Amino acid sequence: MTTLQINGKPTTVDATPDTPLLWVLRDHVGLTGTKFGCGMALCGACTVHLDGVAVRSCQTPISAATGKKITTIEGVGASKVGKAVQNAWLSIGVPQCGYCQAGQIMTATALLEKTPKPSDAEIDGAMSGNLCRCGTYTRIRSAIKVAAGMKGEA
Amino acid sequence: MDMSTLFTPEASKPTGTRRRAFLKTPLVGLTLCVGLPGFGLAADEPQKYGGDGMPNGLRESPKIFVSIAPDGTVSVVVHRSDMGQGVRTSMPRIVADELEADYKRIRVLQAPGDEAKYGNQDTDGSRSTRHWFMPMRRCGAAARQMLEQAAADQWKVPVGEVEAQNHQLVHKPTGKKLGFGAVAVAASKLDVPATASLKLKDPSKFRYIGKTDTTLTDGPGIVTGKSQYGIDTRLPGMFYAVVARPPVLGGKVKRFDAAETMKVPGVVKAFAIEGVPPPSEFMPVGGVCVVAKDTWAAIQGRKALKIEWDDGTHASYDSEAFRRELQEAVSKPGGKVVRNEGDAYAALASAAKKFEADYYVPHYAHATMECPAATARIVNGACEIWAPSQSPQAARDRVAKSLNLPAEKVTVNVTLLGGGFGRKSKADFVVEAAQASKAMNGAPVKLTWTREDDLHNDYFHAVSAQHLEAGIDANGKIVAWVHRAAEPTIASIFAPDQKNLAAFELGLGLTGMPYQIPNVRIENPEAVAHTRIGWLRAVNNIQHAFAAQSFIAEVAYSVGKDHRDYLLDLLGPDRLIDPRKIEPWNHGESPERYPINTGRLRKVIEKVSQEAGWGKKLPSGQGLGLAAHYSFVSYMAAVVEVAVTPKGELVIPRVDIAVDCGPQINPDRIRSQLEGACVMGLSQAVVSEITFKNGRAEQDNFHQYEIVRMNMAPKKIVVHFIPSESYDAPLGGVGEPAVPVIAPALMNAIFGATGKRIRRLPLKDQLSSPV
User: Fold this and answer.
1) What interface predicted TM-score (ipTM) does this complex get?
2) CA dist B31 to B41, B95, B576, B579, Å?
3) Which of B59, B78, B345, B546 registers the highest number of CB atoms within 10 A of its CB?
4) Whether residues A92 and A137 fall in one domain
């Protein structure tokens, strides 16, 4: 049994310590907002925050997450920046299929927490680990600028 | 349902021996000679077009699609699948507008697979809005008139004095008002007005149709992680499964040993599942299924399997050798003649100048961000499925067939789709889930494909080799056009020994070549399919537009002409081409209502080149490239701007796309589809490729099957609409037709920037290394 701090709640799970956090969140805890996309940290769909840092949960065994604050897409709206990012995503109409957007929002929120007014290069640098097969990248850039209170271009 | 359904649904008609889209479409292609009218129908059976021509056709009764609760909440059933194109937003907005409902008080319900009830449910071919705009308008109008009648009855006034206005019924002379909910019960008891008596709104009064609004039905759920995709289904007592599938087309499990698998903590069971030998159409390919208490344990258990495969006859498939084989096949005259006007070979022989070029496009994988996944359970002889399916009725039929149940005993619930692009029209992954549940005595099982599974066992986009030759007269004008295309056919998944393109594939940008050239010969040499071939967003248009639109730019350059001017000149005067003469499939649309209109193609070329600043002076290493293409009965043109660094790195500052898709129903979702098509087209052009060795796809995951990331995406994508004169004008498709213009526009731009002509996709490192 392992106890994890997920979105501010202590949560006990029965999984082997090497089980990736992704599958514990999805299959054991029922937080399916965190998505499986590749299983190799290549696509970013599974991005969560560990103590505020964006990590790929598919490559994070739960043994590495114990004692840390885990934030998922279901909990990120509790922070001011996370909420602003979610709202910007809606106002710009970013999602198409929406599947990758949880990971995009988690990465974007971590970026803005650290770099409140990112440059275009900083946005591209932070976000290029997150794949979107629908191709919403130009709107994601715009939405990050809107969330940052910068001039967004639709 | 947690609300009273007051517009009660019609009783389902028995499914009987209904025709199926997947069968009908390719068979049309297989049995018809190009140019013959009638599409193989009996002489007395009138040809139906558009939505009417699809299996199970159209429905428009509000008793199927609309229900209103006492509090006035209007529920609209969406019977098409949302895979990112926004159909769960666009369809209810159409109904809401005609119903005079407040869109904020609309709730969206998703229909399960049941075409007898809902009409055709194939979410493919860029036709949901194209086919359903008018039926959904009539549905909303009928519901509005029923509410108005019910209010008139209650007030005992003539119905002409009652008008629905923004979720209320108003008695115009007195100003009395009733909410929709107050008369819903009475309205539901009325007959649905006959189509002829429906009063559609004047488009000047539209509140949602044609209006730009970024609101998405599923937006709030998506950004908070609450939306349910196929992979997210959870049922009490559910098991988790993965399957080890034959890596080679037609391969089988010879023997397997699961002893190590069973030692993995959490693994519950391992067993062989039945496959259907090729042509296996939408059915599974078989393999070994591992069931566990979570997905991770199932994946670990699968790794521990020892499987001996019988690879079968396709084990020698090598895509590099196949490329040479296809290129050889198109290098000399021959193959099935699929269009022939004048005498192209004689005109070539006597032309002042000749130009020829070869183009190659590889296999692509759909790589939906959500891998195929489905959940099934079997209770009391009835199977219930949750799946991200583009074709839930096909999944229902295949599951029924696999479990030997009547279709009525199978329910396929449609979740959100984490991408589709044609992959999720296939039921193979859904049937696998049903088979796994059966093996677990009906317990709920979620079966998930990993990314490796997805890339190894996709229904791949066809590889192709194309050869083009132009005969050019003394004025630089093309007088002869020879185009040879060899590519394995999608028909190969439905019938054995299919080696030529089906009519619908020829109709995807090959024989419909609309340029004014007196001598045309298009040939289709045979190609064998060594893997499952499927529809991938825009399908054969991708390679056909890449070749033709690159070629025209090359010819223009070879005669010293400006590409845009040359393209417009080649298009000739504005005219309507009868598709029956060159491209009889015509996307299933009426040749009268949907002729090929060269004037519309001209307009998008003019618009996009003007908006992109065609002809402007650019610094060295930068270029603009243009391409135009007609597909899915829409007209598209794109200009890509590139900058190539001295190291051969590509930067794309801007892409302009002009579209004429007829009336624009949900402009923001059209823009988003075109933006997305642009990025997908760039992936195909620049980085994506599936190769085969020893019959096996060589790419395992996104490090090998690359798709464009944000750092490679255009800095700006600008969409320009050609306004439509009327909402009565025929609608064009939107989801697919922007994809094919991107690769040729990019390669034309790269040529402008560097003088290097890229004829083989993807680009990869062709700019930085000797070709």
Assistant:
1) 0.98
2) 11, 39, 28, 19
3) B546
4) yes
